[in-house]
Fold these 2 entries.
Entry 1:
Amino acid sequence: MKIKSAIFATSAPDLKSCPLSTRPEFAFIGRSNVGKSSLINMLTGRNGLAKVSDTPGKTRLINFFTINDAWSIVDLPGYGYAKVGNMDRLNFNDAVGDFLERREGVLAVFVLIDSRLPPQRIDQEFITWLESCSAPYVLVFTKTDKQSAGRSQENIELFKQGMSEWRSELPPIFPCSAKTKLGQAEILGFIEQTLAKNRGA
Ligand code: GDP
């Protein structure tokens, strides 16, 4: 798919402030610093569209970008751990929870995972929670350029093995790099197909 236009539309602090969902949406989420802004910029070919920052946890708003005047990228605030007593508990803000549980017209959620790391409990916990939401999700393994292809593949395989213990069918998986643009064609192709299916539905 060719990106002819990619425009920042608006930011919303919570679900009720989100714009009317007039276009199909694709949401992006992951731990802060996983490479979400870089991926959005890489996919759209617009370097400054989403803010790339080395400071984790800066974005607390839901950001909407209108693509080709036809669909939207929704950049969701990241998730992390919060200390509850001496336990680490999965934590994301209410806006994220409400959005993923209740927003209509979300055709897919892209869950970003750092390909440099072996499976992390926090990503697995988030995905387990996401299973209870209605929108389908796919996995994007980011920053594959930072180590050998073999190492990325090894971490992806470990993640798949872990998931196959409780999920009979695995979601689509995209290895990606904002630097080499690995995964760009595949993800845009997936979005195009998903939009076409949705039009036919
Ligand atoms: P976000 O917090 O998830 O939006 O993450 P950012 O997109 O701001 O990226 C966090 C840091 O990782 C920045 O320093 C980026 O330049 C770097 N980064 C993100 N994606 C990639 C990638 O694919 N390859 C490399 N080498 N660095 C990346």
Note: The helical segments are 36-44, 94-102, 121-130, 149-164, 184-200.
Entry 2:
Amino acid sequence: MKNDIGRLSLRRLRQNSHVRELVREHRVCVEQLIQPYFVVDGLKDREAVPGMTGTYRDTPDTLLAQIDRDMEAGVRKMLLFGVPAEKKDRAFTSDFTARQLAAIKRRFGADLFVAVDVCLCSYTTHGQCGILTAEGDHVENSATVTELAKAALGFAQAGADCVAPSDMMDGRIAAIRAALDGADLDRTLLMSYSAKFHSKFYGPFRAAADSAPKGAVALKDRATYQIDPGSPRDALASSLRDAEEGADILMVKPGLPYLDVLASLSRAIPTKPWAVYEVSGEYAALELMAEKGLVNGPAAHAESWTAFVRAGASMIITYGARYAQKWLNA
Ligand code: PBG
């Protein structure tokens, strides 16, 4: 016998692509991916986001043109971030974002699933995700939740298929669900960023969304509302609570650095679909390595996405969704 392993060989099932395809347990499909967009009020021309290949701060016009091109490339699900020109400290208006949602829906109708991020960090003068106390040392929970529910309702009325609160205030899922129910919007999905960690991997995003904490206020970061990286139990509690309050979809964010959390939460709460957000810093990290010739970028992205599906995600928010048809075959 040439091979004394014989009966015990595991390499028999790895020997060529036909066999590998037949035995593969997890695969990623373009249909699982959600493409994020940034639309910015008052911009003259669109601007590239540093480090984020293919990602722009769009004007309302360039946004529609970009979505058009992306739909040609197979994108059917999107997540919108609206960035208003005027920053305030309270009594926010989300009309700019609502108008963009309505325009997208007018143009693409049911061919495109449109989710929208609900948060106040792009709306505030200080970049915090809500209304600050007079001392500037704390984000007021209930005043913020009231604003979030108002914004989410406006977005749903403008035609969003899904509202996705990313602020991490207590009770916002219940408040948004109640606001939607009150307006008979019982088909709008509610996707909670339920396990959103206090991460450094959001760096490139904050430049895109004008949302870095800034200014002369006591609060300098988001540690008092986002989850501590060392506290997966908090992520479980937050996800259980948000499921209970009426979230349809739960999420882990960021992705790769929290793959253990995704794997354990998706098993702990198997009755809800799980989303994962491959955040700006993760996407940029692979792109920067690829640019330096250190990795095959497309194949590395596809490998990350496979890890998400293996860990239990049924959908992936990624800045690379528009390239997926190419990258998944790289
Ligand atoms: C808003 C929000 C953030 C992201 C999504 N929604 C940033 C933050 O919390 O600071 C991050 C997305 C990314 O990095 O790609 N609160």
Note: The beta strands are 33-40, 47-48, 56-58, 77-83, 113-118, 162-165, 189-196, 249-253, 274-278, 315-318.
